[in-house]
Amino acid sequence: MQRRAEPAAALLVACALRIERAALRSGGERGAPDGYAVLRTGMGPRAADLAVARALVGPGGDRTAVLATGFCAGLVPGMNPGDLIVAEETRDPRGTVTCDGTALLAEALARAVPGAAVHLGALTGSDHVVRGQERAQLRATGAIAVDMESAATLWTATRDARGARDRRGPVAAVRVIVDAPEHELVRIGTVRGGISAFRVLRAVLPAFFDWHRSSLLPRR
User: Fold this and answer.
1) What is the pLDDT of residue 61?
2) How far, rounded to the nearest angstrom, does the alpha carbon of residue 165 sit from its chain's CA centroid?
3) How confident is the model over 142-154, as a mean pLDDT?
4) pTM of the entire structure?
């Protein structure tokens, strides 16, 4: 007898690191939609691809809202640890994915984390930790931040099993800056920048839930 696939989550929040998942869980789940789930993908674009593809298998997977989150590196001088990035689009070598509801998401984040700077722009993907001069090279492409999983997460989340762009669920990416050009860090969680980013990440879930509720409204 063939086992029935479990229903996919209504809202899938994907992060890579154990510390990111701990921050999200410590923020509580008040106001979470039915079917909300946090997925720890593991580090890197390949891990994100595989984990997200598995999570979206099952009834309703094509309509699941997917939001990539966690820490990132800021590329623009003047950014600080704890600043928020709302991706208007994500980029990797396979192409660009346009995010949904970015203006509303930025407004919701401003309410959820008063005083935190919120930056909107392009979020680029990398298969390694970016440091030094490589930041300036990525900034020259128009990106404002970089991480290793968001672009892969959203690319996979917008594709069906054949790789065609056929999913209908909304997608977004929100990242918290843990280091920036003037605040380059060696290890997350051992210095003040990491602590600041952790505190911000634990406060963002209400904004994610607001974004999800807005995505259910009829589009004009």
Assistant:
1) 81
2) 19
3) 97
4) 0.89
